[in-house]
Specification:
Layout lengths: L3 E8 L2 E8 L8 E6 L12 H12 L2 E6 L15 H17 L5 E6 L1 H13 L9 E4 L18 E6 L7 H10 L4 E6 L10 H18 L5
Helix pairs in contact: 1-5, 2-3
């Protein structure tokens, strides 16, 4: 059976509520931080798409840390307008890397959480030890520009619903075209932004993409 730990992590605005899960069948090959949707619209680490994202990463051999942003659940503090949430993610990532110092790491997120990990990951891409890959599910184009992705040389995987109301297909394709290589865009036939009717397929695609990226360290277009 997989090990699940309920944790309280130190954060920049107070403690952060978190869950750590290890792979069921083998030793972990990488460590992944997973971030949840917008805190002001009901987003938590227990969101269905976040759960599937994390489960897919575990199936690919990852140990996975989910946490609630400041002001969500038992996490302390108040909403930080993305800037604060990036700092929360930075603190959670620091804890995860300290727990598994010999494992490569990855960053994943859904919706608002995908914006958080993209910002944080592109900053870490300038470090000596950078993320193995960034995985953005339901990346919302309607949360402002994302110019930092245009010169971010980390491997980037985007998983997007074909009927995403917060990132219409044409808008996402136009933004994706400007993002730096290496990158990959995977369309999932789904009813809405939350991958309604397609969570199984989302999880399958997460596992396949993560397993490939974790093993070779790069992406094929």
């Amino acid at each position: 059976m997989r090990r699940i730990e309920s944790l309280t992590l130190p954060g920049p605005a107070g403690s952060l509520e978190a869950l750590l899960e290890e792979p069921e069948d083998a030793a972990a090959g990488f460590a992944a931080l997973v971030c949840h949707p917008h805190p002001l619209y009901g987003g938590t680490m227990l969101n269905k798409a976040v759960h599937r994202l994390g489960r897919g990463l575990r199936a690919a051999g990852g140990v996975m840390l989910r946490f609630n942003f400041r002001g969500v659940g038992r996490s302390q503090g108040e909403h930080g307008n993305l800037v604060g949430e990036v700092e929360d993610a930075r603190a959670a990532l620091g804890w995860l890397r300290g727990r598994y110092p010999h494992l490569p790491y990855a960053l994943a997120g859904f919706s608002f959480g995908s914006r958080v990990i993209a910002r944080l990951g592109c900053e870490h891409g300038r470090e000596e030890v950078s993320p193995r890959f960034l995985m953005a599910a339901g990346f919302p184009t309607r949360l402002g520009e994302a110019e930092y992705l245009e010169d971010c040389g980390l491997p980037k995987i985007f998983l997007q619903s074909t009927r995403d109301e917060f990132a219409p297909k044409a808008e996402l394709e136009a933004a994706f075209a400007r993002f730096a290589e290496p990158k990959r865009l995977i369309w999932v036939e789904a009813a809405d932004h939350f991958f309604a009717g397609a969570l199984d397929e989302l999880e399958r695609q997460v596992t396949a993409a993560a397993a490939s990226s974790a093993s070779v360290g790069n992406l094929e277009s």
